[in-house]
Amino acid sequence: MRVLIIIPAFNEEQSIRLVIGELERACGYADILVVDDGSADSTAALAEAAGVAVLRLPYNLGVGGAMRAGYRYALERGYDVALQVDADGQHDTRYIGKLVAAVESADIVIGSRFAGAGTYTSAKFARRLAMRLLAMVVSGLARTKLTDVTSGFRAANRKAMAIFAVHYPVEYLGDTVESLVIAVRSGCVIRQIPVKMRPREYGTASQSSLRALVYLVRAGVALGLALIRRWEPVSAAEVPERAGV
Amino acid sequence: MSVYMLGLVGAVVTVSIVFEMLRRRKLREKYATFWVLLAGVIVVIALFPDVLAGAAAMLGVQVPANLLFFLGSLVLLGVNVQLSSELGRLEERTRTLAEEVALLRLSSREHR
């Protein structure tokens, strides 16, 4: 089974080498693709020097754009599983094997921060409320309990990859929540496994109350749009066969 | 100068600007057609104010100018929504191109 780890990276020159090094040690069986999302710093050059494949987007598209490019690459090159891992080192590499294993029984597997392992507390009430509401609605759609639909730590099989290579929104929360809604509405099975997050090594998460409230409102809008939008369905016939096996 | 004369002058200015922009290839026909048609409507209203007054009376609008303002804002709103959607489509296209460029750049690098 061929596994690709996709790392969307925007100005992550401080952490990208550490993350690549750690992934290579922890998951030698997987290939690594860094999608440089129009960084102004030396992220792409450092990743190339580290010997991994690098997609250099000519300008910043946001996580959604970077991931769609990554899924297109994974699909074209015939990978069986594509994993998304953040470039800031928050995602613990020990869980990657579990995510890959879980893809056997689902199309998408989410590494959930709120499913028991470890304690991840997002400070503001409004933000927690928003995340809880989003999780409830998407769980209902997916007919399974999902506790963390904004997690960027996830694995996808070829069926999900084919959908994401065409539909992966760049809008706010599109890369997490809306992409899940699209996958569910396209008939994908979603599962979650508990993961522990590491504290951020660089940068800080947004924490002000106003921001959290804005987050709540925007999350509601994003979810509402996700539920009513129409897409051209990706038929199974369009999914390319696995190459080279 | 009556308000209708003002409308006439506005229409003529609009048509000349659109014409000049077309000549300099700064404007594509598909947008120009719309503005010229709109200017044409303004000319008709300026030359025959009774058309507007008649329409207002028919619709029960007491002050004809109000009908003009209402229709004018409606048209401008429509144009703005149309342009926003066009812009969104263009963004989606440049996004696809950006991804394509990145994928091609990587494969050309691998083949070197």
Would you kindly provide a written description of the structure presented here, covering whatever features stand out?
The complex is a heterodimer of chains A (245) and B (112). Chain A is of the alpha/beta class and 245 residues long. Chain A has one domain: Spore Coat Polysaccharide Biosynthesis Protein SpsA, Chain A. Chain A has helices at residues 16-26, 43-49, 63-76, 96-102, 125-142, 158-166, 174-185, 209-228, and strands at 3-9, 30-36, 53-56, 81-84, 108-112, 154-156, 190-194. Chain A has a seven-stranded mixed sheet with strand order 3-2-1-4-6-5-7, sandwiched between helices. In chain A, β2, α2 (43-49) and β3 form a beta-alpha-beta unit. Chain B is an all-alpha fold and 112 residues long. Chain B has two domains: 1-47; 65-112. Chain B has helices at residues 3-23, 29-47, 49-59, 64-111. The mean pLDDT of chain B is 89. Chains A and B meet through β3 and α3 of A and α4 of B. Chain B: This is DUF2304 domain-containing protein. Chain B: It comes from Nonomuraea endophytica. Chain B: InterPro entries: DUF2304. Chain B: The chain crosses the membrane at residues 6-22, 34-59, 65-83.
